[in-house]
Amino acid sequence: MFPVELDNVTVAYHKKPVLQEISLQVPEGKLIGIIGPNGAGKSTLIKTILGLVPRASGDISIYGKDYKDQRTRIGYVPQRGSVDWDFPTSALDVVLMGRYGRIGLLKRPKKTDVEMAKAALEKVGMLDYAKRQISQLSGGQQQRVFLARALCQDADIYFMDEPFAGVDAATERAIMTLLAELKEKGKTVLVVHHDLQTAEDYFDWILLLHLRKIAFGPAENVFTIENLQKTYGGKLTFLKDKVLAEGQKG
């Protein structure tokens, strides 16, 4: 049984397909990069799996069941730009939100929940900012807080939408350390990513996406010049054996 399985999934906005006939069987315990040009449907794919975007056709299962039956097994880090950072709440409160799936929205967190939240903040280097309003944090600090919230969900599968976007080098290293730890624990992590230079180094498996699945498998098999040309369809340049693509971010 696969952590995530898609069977012929199509998604359309205003009758225009944005994902077409996607079929995937995501292996367990892997770091998986979702890569493609702007408008390729990367974020839409994650949101469709999470039930945030309706699909026109096809089936999606999480460990063989519907998403709504497996919510407690899923952690999600959205794009930073989609979050209202002016909402008056502290970093600790944001992280505690990761526990609500298990304790219930109307129940108060227990001491063990608070301790777990603080431990998650410490793991991402943000414990000293626990009482700080999230609007007062830098972009990298905000991203670390959202990663801590995902950790608090104690999930089996993590979806991260561009976690490296707009963060400093220290935060990027902290994120990769965290992803490596999750993998060591047998977790499955799917990450929307736009930097082709780091893709092979960061991920075990790669999904190349451009409205359709171009290729999916171990990074060393999938991350080829031929597949990248099929994915980006534009000018590719070569720099120190790494491939860069114009308009790759999105």
Automatic annotation (TrEMBL):
PROSITE patterns: ABC_TRANSPORTER_1 (PS00211), ABC_TRANSPORTER_2 (PS50893). It comes from the Bacteria. One of its GO terms (molecular function) is ATP binding. Keywords: ATP-binding, Nucleotide-binding, Transport. Signal peptide: none annotated. Residues 4-236 form the ABC transporter domain. Belongs to the ABC transporter superfamily. This is Manganese ABC transporter (ATP-binding protein). It comes from Bacillus inaquosorum KCTC 13429. The lineage of its organism: Bacteria, Bacillati, Bacillota, Bacilli, Bacillales.
